[in-house]
Specification:
Chain A: This is NADH-quinone oxidoreductase subunit F. The complex is a heterodimer of chains A (about 450) and B (about 350). Chain A is an alpha/beta fold and about 450 residues long. Chain A is built from 19 helices and eleven strands. Chain A has helices spanning about 20-25, 30-35, 40-50, 60-65, 90-100, 100-115, 130-145, 175-180, 210-220, 225-230, 260-265, 310-315, 320, 340-355, 360-375, 385-395, 405-425, 435-440, 445-450, and strands spanning about 75-80, 115-125, 160-165, 205-210, 230, 235, 240-245, 250-255, 280-285, 295, 330-335. In chain A, the strands form three sheets. In chain A, strands 8-7-11-9-10 form a five-stranded mixed sheet, covered by helices on one side. A four-stranded parallel sheet of chain A has the order 3-2-1-4, sandwiched between helices. In chain A, a hairpin with a 2-residue loop joins strand 5 (about 230) and strand 6 (about 235). In chain A, helix 15 packs parallel to helix 17 (about 405-425). Chain B is about 20% helix and about 15% strand. Chain B has eight helices and 13 strands. In chain B, strands 2-1-5-3-4 form a five-stranded mixed sheet, sandwiched between helices. The chains are: A alpha/beta (about 450), B alpha+beta (about 350).
């Protein structure tokens, strides 16, 4: 049984309400931090914990905090990124919906560490009911003196607001989020300057994922060293994984980093194996924007090491044979799923969500989507596979924000690992005309049609 | 601060961007810029045409930058080394950006008023390919009327945001902006308003493509059939210094004066631009110089200028034999000697 940090009390009845949350030891970290620690000590604890940003990039949270410009004397802000819109990721929703006070507590403690007096939670528009839950939790926190003026008699003020976005994926990018929070069009800014120097209203700002902030109370209560003991190497602590797809038990799981992918997939405690016991075909380990892994690279890396649920192990082998932990959107595919259709679906998402600011992403995502749609509907040409490869290569790295990369990587990985399926779609349009074409005739049965024959 | 671009070193002030430094050096190394406009604050970084490779970050941190950098928004560091046209990666990236910009562009240059002074044409001439790999339908927009002076062709737009910044920084009430997202983002007014601000005409000048053109000049002439003259008049709203685009003694269009990077020297008001089409309103200073390879130079001043009086609508090329020869109009066949000259030249 893995250790639970975030979801420890998730099943306690009434944990949504302030009274029960407080009874279970809630807001202890605020008390501890405000009474016995200086802000810098809190930052130091988070640094020691080795906590890495849970939003996808995995940048060490403590390090990010230490970059914030405290010298200029400008007001500082903490913004919580709850604009969770990655296809396949739904961990933050779970956290905010079931234990809203954990996020509020984390926001207060983290704001104290950064010396902020005005902090925000930016939540996506589709999470309207979660928005209400958070509003309620904030109201309770105000009523009990955890927010507002002169918190716990320390003379430190904090105001916390929830801001509701309008449902744009791009607003999950930190600078676009800041623009949107300022009331402008959610276009990513050009960096530098980084938000740590000039963020919200040109003032130093830290933007953190919900899960990163929710981990802070435990770190403050138990010490960073204790947190660093969980996990392996530079991947410390626990991570929420939102599992979906063709597995027996989809849902949100809290795992200790370092668990093997095999155990996560097949033990009854977690996913419990494949749905209907059909064979595993592919896995997206970290949300739609990370490269897809074929069956042979899921449990073992090319080096022969066990694949573990850590930042390092999942990316072992680079993009050639690895992937990324990303935001923990664990999508499992069995042999009935069509990789081309899946890639097209992802591309369609990125096409729809590109902000349209820089040309490679604006035009490239649309182009990828159109070509993939053609292949999927049986109108592909042999040269389209090379074309796709070329388009994704030209988008990657040439854009303002990482959305371009996120649109390019899944396409690249799908072609790299499942090229034969693309060829099958191009060469046998009759066979793929129904979207469930792999249900009765999985790719393994028709693979011989596209493999090169050597006599 | 010392910065080296394609092997050429220059000393610049701190805060200069790579593109500005490259422009100071000049020549082939200057990256093309479709969205950056030195007169507009906050412009640049969007079109990705000006990507360069930074092979050495600075003297303090000699590591190269892993990604290609947008030179218009990247400040120089002391000792920085930059590769522009000497880098294969950069040329490849520019080629791909050009391709991306062109896949949804209507390529209607033959009927576009911007043709001849279009940044996208210049870019594709240098970095584009003659073939297309895009076989899908291009995206299109419903035509929209944004007032009497400015013609909006949204299909041609490359979303550089220059006109939005112009309206933001030059006029008090911006009524147009970018609506929607991704490749369906469009320049539009909210909701169906006319753009009638006194300085709104400058949007035409800053537009790098034919998305915003002068309605009073619409389909009047190709730009290379016009002769540009520097002229000025007393104006109480703006500097009054303009370029007149003349055909014979008829002013067909008035624009601000543009430098070699096609940026205006000084913004002008709508009155100067649209309402003074009578040569008597202007003090004509003399012909305007153009880059040697500009298509406008086609109609150059190197030969003797004979005064010609032309009624545009009646005899469109009467008295302009050379142009008639160049175009070779089928209705007006060339004489035997002319035909020979046309084919072999008259040197």
């Amino acid at each position: 049984m893995g250790r639970k940090i975030l979801l420890e009390h998730a099943n306690v009845p009434g944990i949504k309400s302030y009274e029960v949350y407080r009874k279970m030891g809630g807001y202890a970290s605020v008390e501890k931090a405000l009474k016995s620690m200086t802000p810098d000590e809190v930052v130091e604890q988070v640094k020691t914990s080795g906590l890495r940003g849970r939003g996808g990039a995995g940048f060490p949270t403590g390090l990010k905090w230490s970059f914030i410009d405290k010298k200029s004397g400008n007001p500082r802000h903490l913004v919580c990124n709850a604009d969770e819109s990655e296809p396949g990721t739904f961990k933050d929703r779970y956290l905010m919906e079931y234990i809203p006070h954990l996020l509020i507590e984390g926001m207060i403690t983290s704001s104290y560490a950064l010396g902020c007096n005005l902090s925000y939670i930016y939540i996506r528009g589709e999470y309207m009911w979660v928005f209400r839950i958070l509003e309620q939790a904030i109201k309770e926190a105000y009523a009990n003196g955890w927010l507002g003026k002169n918190i716990m008699g320390t003379g430190w003020d904090l105001d916390l607001y929830v801001h509701c976005g309008a449902g744009a994926y791009i607003c999950g990018e930190e600078t676009a989020l800041i623009e949107s929070l300022e009331g402008k069009r959610g276009n990513p800014r050009i960096k530098p300057p980084f938000p740590a120097v000039k963020g919200l209203w040109q003032e130093p700002t830290v933007v953190n994922n919900v899960e990163s902030i929710a981990a802070v109370p435990w770190i403050v209560n138990n010490g960073g060293e204790e947190y660093a003991k969980i996990g392996i190497g530079r991947s410390t602590g626990t991570k929420l994984i939102s599992a979906s797809g063709h597995c027996k038990n989809p849902g949100v799981y809290e795992i200790e980093l370092g668990l093997s992918v095999d155990e996560f997939m097949n033990s009854d405690e977690y996913l419990g194996g494949m749905m209907d016991d059909r064979p595993l075909k592919a896995l997206v380990p970290g949300g739609s924007s990370v490269p897809i892994l074929p069956a042979n690279l899921i449990f073992k890396t090319t080096e022969g090491n066990d694949r573990l649920m850590t930042y390092e192990s999942l990316s072992e082998g680079g993009f050639e044979s690895g992937s990324m932990l990303g935001s923990g959107g664990f999508i499992v595919y069995n042999d009935t799923s069509c990789i081309v259709r899946n890639t097209w679906n992802f591309s369609r998402f990125y096409h729809h969500e590109s902000c349209g600011q820089c040309s490679p992403c604006r035009e490239g995502t649309g182009w990828l989507e159109k070509v993939l749609h053609r292949i999927e509907t049986g109108e592909g040409r042999e040269e389209d596979i090379e074309l796709l490869w070329d388009i994704q290569r030209k988008i990657e790295g040439n854009t303002i924000c990482p959305l371009g990369d996120a649109a390019a990587w899944p396409v690249a990985a799908a072609i790299r690992h499942f090229r034969e399926e693309f060829e099958y779609h191009v060469r046998f349009p009759e066979k793929i005309k129904n979207r469930d074409h792999y249900v009765n005739e999985p790719f393994e049965k028709v693979r011989h049609l596209v493999t090169k024959q050597t006599v | 601060m010392k910065v080296t671009i394609d092997g050429q070193s220059i000393e610049v002030e701190p805060g200069t961007t790579i593109l500005q430094a490259a422009r100071m050096i000049g020549g082939e190394s200057v990256p093309p810029a479709m969205c950056y406009y030195s007169k507009l604050k906050g412009s640049g970084g969007k079109c990705r045409c000006c990507l360069v490779e930074v092979t050495k970050g600075s003297d303090a941190d000699t590591r190269p930058m892993p990604k290609l950098m947008a030179s218009c928004v990247t400040g120089v560091m002391d000792g920085m080394e930059v590769k522009s046209i000497t880098s294969e990666r950069v040329l490849d990236a520019r080629k791909s950006v050009t391709e991306f910009l062109l896949i949804n562009h209507p390529l209607d240059c033959p009927v576009c008023d911007q043709a001849g002074e279009c940044d996208l044409q210049n870019l594709s001439f240098k970095h584009g390919s003659a073939n297309t790999r895009y076989i899908e339908d291009r995206r299109t927009f419903e035509p929209e009327n944004i007032g009497d002076n400015i013609q909006l062709h949204m299909n041609r737009c490359i979303l550089c945001y220059r006109c939005v910044m112009t309206a933001d920084q030059l006029t008090d009430n911006r009524v147009h902006g970018v609506l929607n997202r991704g490749d369906h983002a469009q320049i539009s007014t909210y909701i169906s308003k006319a753009i009638d601000n006194e300085f709104s005409g400058n949007m035409i000048d800053v537009c790098p493509v034919g998305a915003l053109t002068d309605k009073t000049f619409r389909f009047k002439s190709r730009v290379w059939f016009n002769k540009p003259y520097n002229a000025h008049r007393d104006c109480d709203k703006c500097c009054g210094k303009t370029t007149l685009w003349m055909f014979g003694d008829e002013i067909q269009r008035v624009t601000a004066r543009k430098d070699e990077y096609h940026e205006v020297e000084e913004f002008i008001c709508n009155e100067c631009r649209f309402e003074h089409k009578d040569p008597a309103d202007w003090v004509i200073e003399g012909p305007r110089k153009f880059e040697k390879n500009s298509v406008i130079n086609q109609n150059n001043y190197t030969r003797d200028m004979k005064p010609v009086k032309i009624e545009t609508e009646k005899n469109i090329l009467l008295g302009r034999d050379e142009d008639r020869k160049k175009i070779s109009m089928s209705e007006v066949p060339l004489k035997g000697q002319e035909k020979k000259e046309f084919k072999e030249g008259n040197v």
